[in-house]
Amino acid sequence: MIHPAHYLITPKPELVALIGTNSDPDVLYILERQLWENHEGDRISRDAQAKRVKRAFATQAVDMLRNFPGLQQMQFSSPATSVDFDRWWIAEKFEMCEEVEDIEERYGLDGKGGSDWN
Fold first, then answer.
1. pLDDT tens-digit map of 3-21
2. Which residues, other chains included, contact 85 with Cβ-Cβ below 8 Å and sequence gap of 6+?
């Protein structure tokens, strides 16, 4: 059975410190908490599903940070991996029992996020 799962993605303090006061909108977007939706089924393990979301987010981050001078310092793999994600972000998974609006309100997202990438 396919069901939606939501991942709250939060940058680690090390990433915030590395990026500092950069004003590029793409760079700032990577520093925002984001809520990503993934349609998951029973045939793929929970770990594999989480890694898939992490790879997708890290790949997007590399693309958005392509002009950021500190990108080399971040040492992303090519292509980006879930290990790259784990170095710079934290993902908290919410199962289908959680309402998106409740998650957004609890974490102060104000309707930000909700990316449905698959």
1. 788 899 999 999 999 888 8
2. 54, 55, 57, 58, 91
